Protein backbone atom coordinates (compact mmCIF):
# COMPACT_ATOMS: atom_id res chain seq x y z
CA UNK A 1 0.00 0.00 0.00
CA UNK A 2 2.73 2.32 0.87
CA UNK A 3 4.64 1.57 -2.27
CA UNK A 4 1.60 2.32 -4.36
CA UNK A 5 1.24 5.69 -2.71
CA UNK A 6 4.85 6.44 -3.35
CA UNK A 7 4.49 5.53 -6.98
CA UNK A 8 1.41 7.71 -7.34
CA UNK A 9 3.16 10.67 -5.74
CA UNK A 10 6.23 10.20 -7.79
CA UNK A 11 4.20 10.03 -10.97
CA UNK A 12 2.31 13.13 -10.05
CA UNK A 13 5.57 14.92 -9.41
CA UNK A 14 6.87 13.96 -12.86
CA UNK A 15 3.66 15.14 -14.54
CA UNK A 16 3.90 18.52 -12.86
CA UNK A 17 7.47 18.97 -13.96
CA UNK A 18 6.55 18.13 -17.50
CA UNK A 19 3.75 20.64 -17.50
CA UNK A 20 5.95 23.32 -16.17
CA UNK A 21 8.52 22.60 -18.77
CA UNK A 22 5.95 22.78 -21.58
CA UNK A 23 4.36 26.01 -20.35
CA UNK A 24 7.54 27.90 -19.72
CA UNK A 25 8.62 28.63 -23.37
CA UNK A 26 5.20 30.05 -24.25
CA UNK A 27 5.16 32.56 -21.51
CA UNK A 28 8.65 33.70 -22.41
CA UNK A 29 7.71 34.13 -26.08
CA UNK A 30 4.85 36.42 -25.17
CA UNK A 31 6.90 38.81 -22.99
CA UNK A 32 9.12 41.28 -24.83
CA UNK A 33 12.81 40.84 -24.29
CA UNK A 34 14.19 42.91 -21.52
CA UNK A 35 17.27 44.92 -21.99
CA UNK A 36 19.89 44.14 -19.48
CA UNK A 37 21.22 47.43 -18.08
CA UNK A 38 24.58 47.06 -16.57
CA UNK A 39 25.07 49.49 -13.71
CA UNK A 40 28.62 50.46 -13.52
CA UNK A 41 29.89 51.00 -9.97
CA UNK A 42 30.42 54.62 -9.00
CA UNK A 43 34.11 55.14 -8.59
CA UNK A 44 35.11 56.44 -5.18
CA UNK A 45 36.52 59.99 -5.34
CA UNK A 46 40.21 60.08 -5.04
CA UNK A 47 41.51 62.21 -2.14
CA UNK A 48 42.52 65.67 -3.21
CA UNK A 49 46.18 66.24 -2.39
CA UNK A 50 46.93 69.92 -1.86
CA UNK A 51 50.48 70.50 -2.92
CA UNK A 52 52.61 72.33 -0.36
CA UNK A 53 53.63 75.81 -1.49
CA UNK A 54 57.19 75.91 -2.60
CA UNK A 55 59.30 78.44 -0.65
CA UNK A 56 59.94 81.55 -2.56
CA UNK A 57 63.56 81.89 -3.47
CA UNK A 58 65.39 84.57 -1.52
CA UNK A 59 66.26 87.54 -3.67
CA UNK A 60 69.89 87.65 -4.50
CA UNK A 61 71.62 90.73 -3.04
CA UNK A 62 72.22 93.40 -5.54
CA UNK A 63 75.95 93.76 -5.92
CA UNK A 64 77.18 97.19 -4.94
CA UNK A 65 79.19 98.59 -7.70
CA UNK A 66 81.68 101.09 -6.36
CA UNK A 67 82.14 104.01 -8.66
CA UNK A 68 85.47 104.14 -10.25
CA UNK A 69 87.54 107.00 -8.94
CA UNK A 70 87.69 109.85 -11.32
CA UNK A 71 91.23 110.71 -11.96
CA UNK A 72 91.77 114.30 -10.96
CA UNK A 73 94.15 116.00 -13.29
CA UNK A 74 97.22 116.99 -11.39
CA UNK A 75 97.79 120.74 -11.39
CA UNK A 76 100.67 121.93 -13.32
CA UNK A 77 103.60 122.55 -11.10
CA UNK A 78 104.53 126.15 -11.20
CA UNK A 79 108.06 127.08 -10.43
CA UNK A 80 108.43 128.24 -6.86
CA UNK A 81 109.51 131.85 -6.53
CA UNK A 82 112.96 132.28 -5.23
CA UNK A 83 112.93 133.63 -1.63
CA UNK A 84 114.04 137.16 -1.22
CA UNK A 85 117.15 137.50 0.90
CA UNK A 86 116.24 138.59 4.43
CA UNK A 87 117.95 141.71 5.66
CA UNK A 88 120.54 141.01 8.25
CA UNK A 89 119.40 142.19 11.72
CA UNK A 90 121.28 145.01 13.23
CA UNK A 91 123.37 143.87 16.12
CA UNK A 92 122.25 145.66 19.23
CA UNK A 93 124.67 146.08 22.07
CA UNK A 94 124.07 143.57 24.88
CA UNK A 95 122.82 145.15 28.12
CA UNK A 96 125.21 145.16 30.95
CA UNK A 97 124.41 142.55 33.56
CA UNK A 98 123.68 144.17 36.87
CA UNK A 99 124.56 142.24 39.99
CA UNK A 100 121.54 140.70 41.70
CA UNK A 101 120.79 142.20 45.09
CA UNK A 102 121.51 139.88 47.95
CA UNK A 103 118.41 138.86 49.94
CA UNK A 104 118.06 140.69 53.15
CA UNK A 105 118.53 138.47 56.13
CA UNK A 106 115.48 138.78 58.32
CA UNK A 107 116.22 138.72 61.99
CA UNK A 108 114.97 135.63 63.80
CA UNK A 109 111.90 136.30 65.95
CA UNK A 110 112.79 136.71 69.53
CA UNK A 111 110.94 134.50 72.00
CA UNK A 112 108.09 136.21 73.74
CA UNK A 113 109.14 137.30 77.19
CA UNK A 114 107.34 135.54 79.98
CA UNK A 115 104.96 137.80 81.89
CA UNK A 116 106.41 139.41 84.92
CA UNK A 117 105.15 138.03 88.21
CA UNK A 118 104.31 139.98 91.27
CA UNK A 119 106.44 139.28 94.36
CA UNK A 120 103.56 137.31 95.86
CA UNK A 121 103.18 135.19 92.67
CA UNK A 122 106.92 134.65 92.53
CA UNK A 123 106.82 133.30 96.06
CA UNK A 124 103.90 130.95 95.32
CA UNK A 125 105.52 129.73 92.09
CA UNK A 126 108.76 129.11 93.99
CA UNK A 127 106.84 127.14 96.57
CA UNK A 128 104.93 125.20 93.87
CA UNK A 129 108.19 124.38 92.06
CA UNK A 130 109.48 122.83 95.26
CA UNK A 131 106.56 120.38 95.04
CA UNK A 132 107.20 118.09 92.08
CA UNK A 133 108.61 118.75 88.60
CA UNK A 134 107.91 121.49 86.05
CA UNK A 135 106.56 121.24 82.48
CA UNK A 136 104.41 122.81 79.78
CA UNK A 137 101.49 122.53 82.22
CA UNK A 138 101.75 122.20 85.99
CA UNK A 139 98.94 121.95 88.56
CA UNK A 140 99.98 122.02 92.22
CA UNK A 141 97.91 121.65 95.40
CA UNK A 142 99.22 123.35 98.58
CA UNK A 143 97.92 123.21 102.17
CA UNK A 144 99.31 123.66 105.70
CA UNK A 145 96.82 121.93 108.03
CA UNK A 146 97.13 118.29 109.15
CA UNK A 147 95.08 115.97 106.94
CA UNK A 148 95.27 113.89 103.75
CA UNK A 149 94.09 115.99 100.80
CA UNK A 150 94.16 114.51 97.25
CA UNK A 151 94.43 116.27 93.90
CA UNK A 152 92.26 114.99 90.97
CA UNK A 153 92.85 116.25 87.39
CA UNK A 154 90.57 114.96 84.60
CA UNK A 155 92.12 115.24 81.12
CA UNK A 156 90.32 115.75 77.75
CA UNK A 157 90.40 111.96 77.19
CA UNK A 158 88.31 111.55 80.41
CA UNK A 159 91.19 109.85 82.25
CA UNK A 160 91.70 111.24 85.76
CA UNK A 161 95.15 111.48 87.30
CA UNK A 162 95.14 110.97 91.11
CA UNK A 163 96.80 108.82 93.79
CA UNK A 164 95.37 105.57 92.38
CA UNK A 165 96.35 106.36 88.75
CA UNK A 166 99.52 108.41 88.67
CA UNK A 167 100.59 108.06 85.00
CA UNK A 168 98.90 108.31 81.58
CA UNK A 169 101.36 107.17 78.86
CA UNK A 170 99.00 108.40 76.14
CA UNK A 171 99.24 112.05 77.24
CA UNK A 172 102.42 112.10 79.30
CA UNK A 173 100.60 113.33 82.40
CA UNK A 174 102.04 112.33 85.79
CA UNK A 175 101.22 112.75 89.47
CA UNK A 176 104.75 112.80 90.87
CA UNK A 177 104.09 113.94 94.46
CA UNK A 178 101.50 112.53 96.88
CA UNK A 179 101.18 113.58 100.54
CA UNK A 180 99.16 111.43 102.94
CA UNK A 181 99.80 113.33 106.22
CA UNK A 182 99.58 117.06 105.63
CA UNK A 183 101.04 119.79 107.80
CA UNK A 184 102.95 122.97 106.97
CA UNK A 185 104.38 123.02 103.42
CA UNK A 186 102.31 119.99 102.21
CA UNK A 187 101.45 119.57 98.55
CA UNK A 188 100.65 117.34 95.58
CA UNK A 189 101.63 117.91 91.95
CA UNK A 190 100.46 116.88 88.44
CA UNK A 191 102.46 117.98 85.41
CA UNK A 192 103.04 117.40 81.66
CA UNK A 193 106.67 117.73 80.64
CA UNK A 194 105.85 118.16 76.93
CA UNK A 195 102.84 119.70 75.23
CA UNK A 196 99.74 118.18 76.87
CA UNK A 197 96.61 117.02 75.10
CA UNK A 198 94.47 119.81 73.68
CA UNK A 199 91.06 120.23 75.22
CA UNK A 200 89.28 120.85 78.52
CA UNK A 201 90.80 120.02 81.92
CA UNK A 202 88.88 119.72 85.20
CA UNK A 203 90.53 120.15 88.61
CA UNK A 204 89.06 118.86 91.91
CA UNK A 205 90.36 118.24 95.45
CA UNK A 206 89.18 115.72 98.06
CA UNK A 207 89.67 115.55 101.83
CA UNK A 208 90.51 111.84 101.84
CA UNK A 209 91.27 111.58 105.59
CA UNK A 210 90.46 114.16 108.24
CA UNK A 211 93.17 114.32 110.94
CA UNK A 212 92.71 117.89 112.10
CA UNK A 213 89.08 118.51 112.89
CA UNK A 214 87.41 120.95 110.53
CA UNK A 215 89.89 120.58 107.69
CA UNK A 216 91.22 123.84 106.31
CA UNK A 217 91.98 126.03 103.30
CA UNK A 218 93.87 124.73 100.24
CA UNK A 219 95.46 126.71 97.41
CA UNK A 220 95.65 125.37 93.83
CA UNK A 221 98.27 126.81 91.44
CA UNK A 222 97.84 126.41 87.65
CA UNK A 223 100.98 127.29 85.69
CA UNK A 224 100.88 127.32 81.85
CA UNK A 225 104.22 128.14 80.30
CA UNK A 226 104.07 131.67 78.86
CA UNK A 227 100.78 132.63 80.60
CA UNK A 228 99.95 134.30 83.89
CA UNK A 229 99.77 132.12 86.99
CA UNK A 230 96.33 131.21 88.30
CA UNK A 231 95.76 130.92 92.05
CA UNK A 232 92.51 129.47 93.43
CA UNK A 233 91.63 128.95 97.11
CA UNK A 234 89.17 126.29 98.27
CA UNK A 235 88.19 125.00 101.73
CA UNK A 236 87.56 121.36 102.62
CA UNK A 237 85.85 120.55 105.92
CA UNK A 238 84.25 117.06 105.68
CA UNK A 239 86.10 113.78 105.25
CA UNK A 240 85.30 112.24 101.79
CA UNK A 241 84.19 115.61 100.45
CA UNK A 242 85.21 116.33 96.82
CA UNK A 243 85.30 120.00 95.85
CA UNK A 244 85.31 121.40 92.31
CA UNK A 245 88.19 123.87 91.79
CA UNK A 246 88.30 125.02 88.12
CA UNK A 247 88.02 124.09 84.44
CA UNK A 248 90.19 125.45 81.63
CA UNK A 249 91.02 124.75 78.00
CA UNK A 250 94.54 124.05 76.78
CA UNK A 251 95.00 124.74 73.06
Sheet with the most strands, sense and barrel status? 6 strands, antiparallel
Give the structural class: alpha+beta
- Shape by Cα distribution: elongated
Q: Given the structure, what is the number of helices?
A: 2
* Poorly predicted ranges: none
* Cα-based radius of gyration, to the nearest Å: 72 Å
Structure write-up:
There is one protein chain. The protein has a 6-stranded antiparallel sheet with strand order 4-5-6-1-8-9, covered by helices on one side. A 4-stranded antiparallel sheet has the order 3-2-7-10, with no helix packed on it. The model has no long low-confidence stretch (mean pLDDT 80). A hairpin with a 5-residue loop joins strand 2 (147-154) and strand 3. Helices cover 16% and strands 27% of the residues. With 251 residues, it is α+β, with helices and mostly antiparallel strands. The chain is built from 2 helices and 10 strands.
Key features?
6-stranded antiparallel β-sheet, elongated, 2 helices, 4-stranded antiparallel β-sheet, 27% strand, 16% helix, 10 strands, 251 residues, alpha+beta
Quick rundown:
The chain has about 250 residues and is of the alpha+beta class. The chain has two helices and ten strands. It has a six-stranded antiparallel beta sheet, covered by helices on one side. Strands 3-2-7-10 form a four-stranded antiparallel beta sheet, with no helix packed on it.
Summarize the helices and strands and which ones pair or pack.
Blueprint: H1 2-30, H2 119-130, E1 137-143, E2 147-154, E3 160-161, E4 167-168, E5 173-177, E6 186-192, E7 199-210, E8 216-224, E9 230-236, E10 242-250
Antiparallel strand pairs: 1-6, 1-8, 2-3, 2-7, 4-5, 5-6, 7-10, 8-9
Amino acid sequence: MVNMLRCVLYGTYLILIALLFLLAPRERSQEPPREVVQIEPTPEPEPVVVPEPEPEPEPEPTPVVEPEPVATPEPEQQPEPEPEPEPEPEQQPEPEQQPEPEPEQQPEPEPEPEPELSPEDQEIVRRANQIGAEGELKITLLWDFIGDVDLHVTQPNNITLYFDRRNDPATGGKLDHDNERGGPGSGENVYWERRPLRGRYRVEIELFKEIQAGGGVCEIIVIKRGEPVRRIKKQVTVEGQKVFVTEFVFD
